[in-house]
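Case study B.
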Amino acid sequence: MEHTVSVRGVDVQANGASLRRRDGMILNRISQGIFVVLGLFVLYVLGRALLQNPSVFIQQVMNGLQLGFIYALIALGYTMIYGIVKLINFAHGDVFMVGAFTSFYTIGTLELHRWLTWVAPGMPEGLATVVGTFTVILASMVISAALAVVVERFAYRPLRNKPRIAALITAVGVSFFLEYFGALPFAYTNNYITYPRPFEVAVYSAGKVSPVLMAAMWTIFVVALVIYGIFFVRGKRGDARAKLILRHPLLSFGLQFGGFLAVVLTLAGIRIETGGKVWDLSASNVTLVIMSASILLQVVLQYIVNNTRLGKAMRAAAYDKPAARLMGINVDGVITATFALGGGLAGAGGVLYATAYKQVHHLMGIIPGLKAFVAAVVGGIGSIPGAFVGSLIMGQTEVLAAGFISTPMRDAIAFSLLIIVLLVWPQGIFGEPPAEKV
Amino acid sequence: MVEQRPSERVRLSGRGQPQKLLKKPGVLFVGGGLLFFALVQALLQFDVLNNFWRGIIFWGAAITMVALGLNLIYGFCGQFSLGQYGFYAIGSYTAADVTWRWTHSDPSGIVVVLFGSLLVLLFYIGVSRLLGAFFRVNVMTRFTFFVIATIVALAITVRFLVPSLGPVVTGVLEGLPSDVSDRIVFFLALLGGAAFAGIASFLFGIPVLELGSDYFGIATLGFTVIIKVLLDNTDTILPFPEMKGARGMIGIPMWTTWPWVFASLVLVVVVMRNLLHSSTGRAIVSVREDERAAQLVGIDVATSKVLAFVIGSVFAGLAGGIRAHDLAFLHPQNFNFIQSFNPLIIVVFGGLGSMTGTILAGFVWIFLLEGVLRLYLPAGFETWRFVVYPLVLLLMMLLRPEGLMGRYEMPFLRKKLPQLRPGVATVGDTGDTESSSGDVGANGEVVA
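Model:
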């Protein structure tokens, strides 16, 4: 009896029977072709929409940007927590909800957003509002961070050495608890509640954008870009310090903040009329606040993770917990800090989300939380820039899908994106391939 | 995994006695099952249990089937899935649509689920033979070809088979007494729901099962959300006006009776038990223990995963049909992703990889959460149910993370394993799912 095992199209002979297997690459090409055609079709639909009415399309992109920046705030917490404890923290979306409700109470009951006018009645209105808004956001961040730490301490820490599924079920339990405790009549009740914004909405469109602001943003962007360029070239020539400066948080803040705001303000500020088509976009101050807060917090987080001792400890704990412990790192403390940071970001996201959509509800955290998690996965879980980029992609997908493909299917399309990305890049866009475990 | 050593296998299967058809655990199982069946049937017959409790029992059975399916996928095959409710939804909507159409004298549902499924199966065989003739076929290609096959088969069914076979089916069923024909239709509807859930899980499983642990969980969560959105839009995006989208489907005949429920549950339990006791089942469990090692001993890991996933989803689809015809009302909100944690919680409560635990936990969970708490909490405290239940969940996870029953199985479901050498700790076949490499290594050393 002859056994010949073939690898590349050679006859296989087993028990005298012979069968010939052909190269399947042609089939692979066919299926790839089908997927490419489908992708091109989606691009065609979007491109047609862009050409037919560029103004509406760009407006949708800006809306998507706003949503994406909110998702980014939630996704950063998800990605950090997953990176360190490898736990899908389902309660994170509810921390976000609690952040929104905290601001609902601080604004509605305590009127904390007006505290500067009590202290110093002569204050200019604008300054009082800005300071008040920051106070409200900060208060929500603190409360949410505290909640996240409490949850970690009492629900997750006792299960650190138990099977992971136990912690996951606990996360689901905590999530349910926060949601349905919130639904109780003496808590938030289960109604949709109108949210009092900490500041009045102002819509910037052509003529209303202050040229000074626009010029300032462009200046920040251009200066940051020039500095970046200089040090990039010097770094290429072998200057080690230049490479360090390239990663300076102020520089990346200037680049992102200046860039995004300058583009959005410019788009909103110009008005063109050509052949019956009017290019007249608008951006609200909510969008601008969301963008700047999100960029700021993300840069601060990057700074903490990359440049501080805590960040170093976090990275070490994420890499190898036992080894980090052996090196004298207080891993439990680091995990607590991670939860606090993540919770704080989620709380800020909650305030901004409620400000943008003017509604709070005890289940409001579920879907944004899930989508932010999906965004973190799309970007590559465990990576902070990944979470940021993934969230922006997620926001665009959702808004463009709702606007130009099918409105009721927006959630389905957003989650299909997840499945597609997982199939194409299983580790996400910025993710690192998992270490080979043998 | 525990290795079966030949000498012990011989000693165990023999013991000098011929193989008996009736063994004590089997007799006990059948006897106990019949007793349970008779008891509930009698209670229902004499109206001791009112409609509320009847619903609770039926619901418990349905959710137990769903959870058993998940236990096969997660507890035994190690694939963390949150998509079980998606397949449950597919099963219930399919079955409900078939009977709804039949009661509105439209046989197309029956034709589609019966002949359509058969055609899809035929096409699948063809496609797998086709793909088998090639090497280096990647996952996306397999997926694409199977999707195309499904679409073509269903299109052929709807376009050609429904007009030609519809009158035949109606003629045959009309010829029977309406009592019998209703039962046949119900049977076909249940079958169809299970088959469609199986088809969906097969198509979804081919690419996604490649992903492994957490990513697979997230993708299945996405699947649940997608199914929920599709159900919300059945009348606008999908061509099923009778499902009424987000308003909920009404007019489903209430055909579920206790014999149907019990028969389905027993079918699920027995199929799962026999599967797990077969060599295929051992392959599935070995995938959970260590994928790489399983591959090295020649187990087709991908096929084992898909098999476990499809069978688990078929169970969920079957349960969906049962539940739909008991409730007579389907709403997309019943299948949202929050609900999809229910089977997971039941499985973990009962003990991962313990069928007994799942069965017990499924009934107890519904009995307590939907029965006792709903009835006996004072008015106005209904919302407290979902506050109390996560707290119980948390306490349970803190105090007994391995589940109520841990690894216990009742004798009929227990797999007989050879005794290990004396002095060695016994390792059950339902090992820890979180295959920490330390444990496996230790076992390996012990066996070697």
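Chain B has one domain: 20-423. The remaining cases will be described in the next quarterly update.
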